[in-house]
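Pilot study result, target chain (269 residues):
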Amino acid sequence: MKTFKDRLSSENSFFLLAGPCAIEGEEMALRIAEHMVKITDQLGIPYIFKGSFKKANRSRIDSFTGIGDEKALKILQKIGREFGVPTVTDIHEVSDAAKAAAYVDVLQIPAFLVRQTDLVVAAAETGKYVNLKKGQFMSPESMQHAVRKVTDSSNDNVWITDRGTMFGYQDMVVDYRGILVMKSFAPTILDVTHSLQQPNQASGVTGGRPEMIETMARAGVAVGVDGLFIETHFDTAQAKSDGANMLPLELMEGLLTRLHRLHQTVSSL
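Predicted structure:
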């Protein structure tokens, strides 16, 4: 049986982290996972199911935060076992690290917490893969220090994910030069959908530009990202978190097919 690391190693493809922003329930999570596994198996794309077991970084106190930690984590565990794929979830507190590590394969540090040393070290010490989201306020070069916190904790299984840099109050930009810089520290992923967020809206609900998802993803593949991160839902209008910048699930097959072909072309140059 292939190890997790073997599954992620493919000369013919980038790897993919994809799923809903948050686990809203078992039925919806299994529906998305089944669809994504079918597509990625057909294309030979190494796949990791993504879903947050809770959302701590909400703009408003009445925003959806989760269905219960253990309930959501058990759903992630079930997806991993039923479909034979790795899973990834965010953690926000030191105590989350060991708790989530019992259920998932990858612990993700949110961008606004990536400088929190205790949190990063706690994730590293579980021995799981650690995915470090680049802070919107940080330079690509500064991410080497976050990576070193993981490796100095005797864990070499670390990734960086670029999710854009703040450009004014309500927009993000991706500097593709930074991807090449960060690839020199660790495998680097482009978070396509969060890079298209329009945060800090007066309503307290984050906006987005999902019509630019393919453009952003194509550019990432062209410059050689190791992986892509794309949030998706079968009903983005009713999604409880980040629906404004997610890709509708029915569009995923066409997008990934085109991106896979682009990757093959770029790799042959």
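One observation from the pilot: The two ends are 32 Å apart (CA to CA). A full batch analysis is planned for the follow-on phase.
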